[in-house]
Design goal:
alpha+beta, six-stranded mixed β-sheet, 13 strands
């Protein structure tokens, strides 16, 4: 089963743990050389950041790509060319029970939006009836575990110029996340200022 395959890949990965800035930070180095970094809030155990770095074609280290959390908020190299701060900003911020995406700076009334699941394309689609915004996005967690995309799990709301899309996590994902969190808490995490952060 694909869920078990992903769980095994996580268990086999070399892991490093660190507690810093009120977050539990974990780094995974997989057998194929790819890396995943995650950060969890220490008080709530909610995932606040997940990013990936894949090997390049020639075996070098690629750039980090964000899956969950704000995309590189402290990026100083983006001074030269920046997106207009009033453009819609798409980001993923999960809760314990749902995968959740937020689109900030999008001010149309709620009846303008339509959000649908496209199971054959394995993605969700956001459309506006005024044709001012269109976005396709996948749910990598479901893809990794090869779980079906269910339209009934999808919902959305709009408030304060932000469209919030939620997808209720399947029970397989909830179980896997709980098991992973237990494993992470077992790791001997170093604290801030302790630079010897060994991979286990």
């Amino acid at each position: 089963m694909a869920v078990q395959h992903w769980a095994d890949a996580l268990r086999k990965a070399k892991k490093t743990a660190l507690i810093s800035d009120g977050k539990r930070k974990a780094h995974y180095l997989f057998e194929d050389g790819n890396e995943m970094a995650e950060e969890y809030d220490l008080k709530t155990d909610e995932l606040v950041l997940r990013k990936w770095r894949h090997k390049t074609t020639f075996g070098g280290q690629g750039q980090w790509t964000w899956e969950v959390g704000e995309t590189n908020p402290n990026d100083i190299t983006s001074d030269v060319i920046k997106e207009n701060c009033s453009n819609p900003l798409f980001m993923r911020k999960d809760t314990k029970a749902s995968f959740q995406w937020r689109i900030r700076n999008i001010s149309y009334p709620v009846e303008v939006y339509s959000v649908s699941a496209e199971p054959t394309e394995r993605c969700c689609v956001i459309r506006t009836s005024n044709k001012k915004y269109y976005k396709k996005f996948s749910i990598p967690d479901l893809d990794r575990c090869q779980l079906p995309l269910e339209s009934t799990a999808l919902s959305f709301t709009h408030a304060n110029n932000t469209l919030i899309i939620s997808y209720k996590k399947p029970k397989e994902i909830l179980t896997l996340e709980q098991e992973l969190l237990v494993e992470l808490k077992k790791l001997k995490g170093t604290s801030e200022g302790d630079t010897d952060c060994k991979t286990q």
